[in-house]
């Protein structure tokens, strides 16, 4: 009697490659949202770049909105390391990172343009605000002493974003030609004043 052949099944293979498939979709989404913004790209195009179908993308993430949220989390993951370690060196760490940031650093540029190009969409902006608050604003606020800690934390992040805008998008020649050590020192002073707050500054007044 001829043995009955079992129909081929993709399920075991899919289970084995689930993590890799999800990661491929996330990386495709991160690159796509960075280049085109939330409104400028669709799930079908993201799926095509990842080598999967739009149906599979929706199976993993549920919707374009949920995929964007996951991509933002991936982009911000591990970036709060500046808030770890000696808090007295925070201004130095932040200024050194901003000054040594290179335009050809694709990973960093992806994160910045993800913000810049997706923020015009109200729902995308809400997702970005929540993620920024969770990954950056709250950990930074926890390090600050004195009044208006939340406001000062947001101002520090705004300075970093503004410098990224001038250097990566506008291409400010003044910043590009600036002496790295001098620029780092100026930034360190700005960050330190925001970190110290008004109370510490007032202590040095006669």
Over the alpha carbons, how many angstroms does the gyration radius reach?
22 Å
Distance between the first and last residues' Cα: 102 Å
Average pLDDT for all residues = 83
Please give the largest β-sheet: none
Taken from the alpha-carbon principal axes, the silhouette is elongated
Detail the topology: elements first, then pairings:
Layout: H1 11-16, H2 18-36, H3 43-50, H4 54-61, H5 64-76, H6 90-100, H7 106-118, H8 122-143, H9 149-170, H10 173-177, H11 180-203
Helix pairs in contact: 2-3, 2-5, 2-7, 3-4, 5-8, 6-11, 8-9, 9-11
Give a short summary of the structure.
By secondary structure, this protein is mainly alpha-helical. The protein has helices at residues 11-16, 18-36, 43-50, 54-61, 64-76, 90-100, 106-118, 122-143, 149-170, 173-177, 180-203.
Explained architecture:
The protein has 206 residues and is mostly helical. 73% of the residues lie in helices and 0% in strands. The protein contains 11 helices and no strands. Helix 8 (122-143) crosses helix 9 (149-170). It is elongated and about 55 Å long. Mean pLDDT is 83; it is low at 1-15 and 201-206.
Defining traits:
206 residues, mainly alpha, 0% strand, elongated, disordered C terminus
